[in-house]
Design a protein that fits this description.
heterodimer; A: mainly alpha; two-stranded parallel sheet; 11 helices; B: mainly alpha; three-stranded antiparallel β-sheet; 3 strands; about 60% helix; globular
Chain lengths: ~280, ~120
């Protein structure tokens, strides 16, 4: 069947409009291409039924029987069916009939809509950064307190043993130190700030590490739907790895024993899992 | 407007059955898109439009329920033939089993008989 230039241009315009509607519906490029190829094959079949050299009027008549391009946007927005257990979300390549010349479009594998970055890994990274910032703030606070004279207030969160705190009336009388260049920090605030600046980095670090490992597990389980395993590993190892190394330096013998035991347990676990799998 | 609203339930019901319809149509032979469209149109109450069918075929292929191969066409661009994969056959069997169960239950409800158990369906 021969399509003249006008018919070809009109057909291409319709297919482009369909592809645009699909793109606006966030349909992946490869799936758009598949849909447009199916549609083009249908239109050319319908045109072929009208004669060997269809006219523009034939094409217009065919197009009026078809859905408008915007209808594809609505259909493409329908949810995906759930993948079956054990199957990959990545689409298999299209087979090309041996007699047909393989076009680049046909030869390239068609992929599912793009994978998404693991949000958990990103949040974990933010926690790690937060812990670093909190650590810096803690150091700065400690440095400031160390260089600033402290009001000797009797009000403190942790009074020394044997000292009884009777009430606020003693605060004024107990204050003995002051300088011209800085206001002294009341002891209670000093302790509150120190606790906050010390707890903050620890909480953030723990949160970042836990989120990192959770994200890594989810990324592996997602079978390609999520990415960011590098970032998740970074989150998960940022504190544990240096901490482990530090422990190895401080307590070499117990750590070697601990690592050997952990290695043996891991080895046994692998054997227990591998042997039944091999037997099957 | 009332007539349109009356027809809405038909399109809603059919929307839920599109995948089952397509998989069932591909059970015995491989078909290309337009062929599949004509096959469904020839069945009473199963007609689909191309803007519904082709995105569904894309999703099914993404999910590896159907496989695609391209064959040159005498009338124009290559045709994309779809066929059921083993995973697709398994899914179709599950869907058909479920369909039969709910169909029997609805028949029983409408006919006034007791409910049919749906336990174990879709597993």
């Amino acid at each position: 069947m021969n399509l003249n230039a006008d018919v070809r241009a009109r057909l291409d315009a319709h297919l482009d409009a369909v592809e645009k509607a699909l793109a606006e519906a966030k349909c992946s490029r490869e799936r758009r291409r598949g849909i447009v190829d199916d549609l083009e094959a249908q239109i050319t079949d319908m045109l072929a039924a009208r004669g060997a050299e269809p006219t523009l009027a034939d094409l217009e008549a065919v197009l009026t029987t078809l859905d408008p391009p915007e209808a594809y946007g609505e259909s493409a927005g329908m949810p995906r069916s759930q993948p079956a257990p054990g199957e990959s979300p990545v689409r298999p390549p299209v087979e090309v009939y041996s007699g047909a010349p393989a076009t680049p479009a046909a030869a390239s594998p068609i992929r599912a809509p793009g994978p998404q970055m693991s949000r958990m890994a990103v949040v974990g990274f933010i926690c790690i950064v937060g812990s670093i910032i909190c650590s810096a703030a803690a150091l700065a606070s400690l440095w400031t307190f160390a260089s600033t004279p402290v009001a000797h207030s009797s009000v403190t969160l942790f009074p020394p043993a044997g000292v009884q705190v009777n009430g606020p009336e003693r605060m004024g009388t107990a204050t003995t130190a002051s300088t011209a260049w800085a206001e002294p920090h009341p002891a209670v605030w000093r302790e509150v700030i120190i606790i906050c600046t010390l707890v903050g980095p620890v909480v953030f670090a723990l949160l970042g590490t836990v989120l990192g490992w959770l994200a890594f597990g989810r990324i592996r389980a997602s079978r390609g739907a999520l990415y960011g395993s590098g970032l998740a590993l970074f989150d998960g190892l940022f504190y544990p790895l240096p901490l482990g190394l530090l422990l190895c330096l401080i307590f070499p013998l117990p750590m070697i024993v601990l690592l050997m035991v952990a290695g043996m347990i891991t080895g046994i676990w692998f054997l227990v899992r591998l042997i039944p799998a091999t037997a099957r | 407007v009332a007539e349109l609203a009356d027809r809405m339930w038909v399109s809603q019901l059919r929307k839920g059955l599109v995948e089952l319809m397509v998989l069932a149509a591909l059970r015995r032979e491989e078909l290309y898109g337009y062929q599949l469209l004509q096959r469904l149109a020839s069945m009473n109450g199963l007609s689909l439009t191309e803007s519904t069918l082709y995105p569904v075929l894309g999703r099914l292929a993404d999910d590896r329920l159907v496989a695609v191969r391209q064959v040159p066409s005498p009338s124009g661009p290559p045709r994309r033939y779809y066929r059921l994969t083993a995973v697709g056959e398994k899914r179709l069997a599950e869907m058909l089993a479920y369909w039969k169960q709910i169909s029997a239950s609805i028949d029983a409800l409408a006919g006034g008989a007791g409910p049919t158990s749906l336990e174990g369906v879709g597993t």
